[in-house]
Amino acid sequence: MRAAVVNTPEAAPVCADFPDPEQQPGRRPLRLAGAGLHHVVRALASGHHYGSEQAYPLVPGVDAVARTDDGRLVYTGLARSPWGTMAEWLVTPFEVELPAGADPLAVAAGMNPAMSGWMALAARRAEAGELGTVLVLGATGMSGSLAVRAALSLGAERVLAAGRDHEALERLRGLGAVTVALAAAAPDAWTAALGAAVAEAQPTLVLDFVWGPVAEAAFAALASPGTDDDSAAIDYVQIGSLAGTEAALPAALLRSRRIRISGSGAGSVSKAQMIAELPEIIARFADGTFDAPYTVYPLSRVGEAWSHQGRARAVIVPD
């Protein structure tokens, strides 16, 4: 079959012949409709993600929309290595049928980034019964923007959306979020802006898609100057690290606030948990709550897609 093939960690994929995926009992092969080129796809292929097996050659891709042999469109993923989802044929362990009205390529572009915030929100809602005030760091990227939309749709009392893209912040403000503009390369200003926002509404849940110095600014903003034991407990969930893989955690924050810091991602969230949430997430694409801009690249241009940048997500489709 034709597939995107990564031959070394440093190389972009090329369109080439690759062995058909191994058959699995009870699973019929699916034909690719579209596979999103997410940040995690590049990181896994290059060996920079903690889940990378670093065995080459491989087919990249973690999820896709595909067509069954009877013509149904389904969302799927978790193909067995070295097969990913950027190939003509897929054999995968699950399928979730797309509802009427869902743009299959928007689903391919947006499900992975939407899932990253959704899982933390769903876990908080299941544990506490409500979301309270949610602070999203990195709210102007696709994952963060979808997390803001998810928090609003799941009934958060207030959503604080922090990011650097002013145009994207304005769109989120129009949806009902309280926006926090973070000036470029100005950590002290980030702390001041976040401090002013959390003084107005103390978050009960923080979704951090960026980490690094932005997280450090958030820690400083969240730290209590006193020992008030009436402050609400905070769940701080680390999801992405686009701003840096390390962040210094001040001891004063841990002692002055009832704060729990955890992560959400493959390994800390079970596959069964993720699959159980998929129908509800997909429904948000069908009803217009979620959207995901995308740029289509045929499989033969996967090398060009690999360097794609901008607000739209690259989606690989068959030639």
TrEMBL record:
Output one GO MF annotation.
Answer: oxidoreductase activity
InterPro entries listed in its UniProt record: GroES-like_sf (IPR011032), NAD(P)-bd_dom_sf (IPR036291), Zn-ADH-like_protein (IPR051397)
Q: Which domain of life is it from?
A: Bacteria
This chain's protein is named NADPH:quinone reductase-like Zn-dependent oxidoreductase
What species was this sequence derived from?
A: Lipingzhangella halophila
Which taxonomic lineage does the organism of this UniProt entry have? Answer: Bacteria, Bacillati, Actinomycetota, Actinomycetes, Streptosporangiales
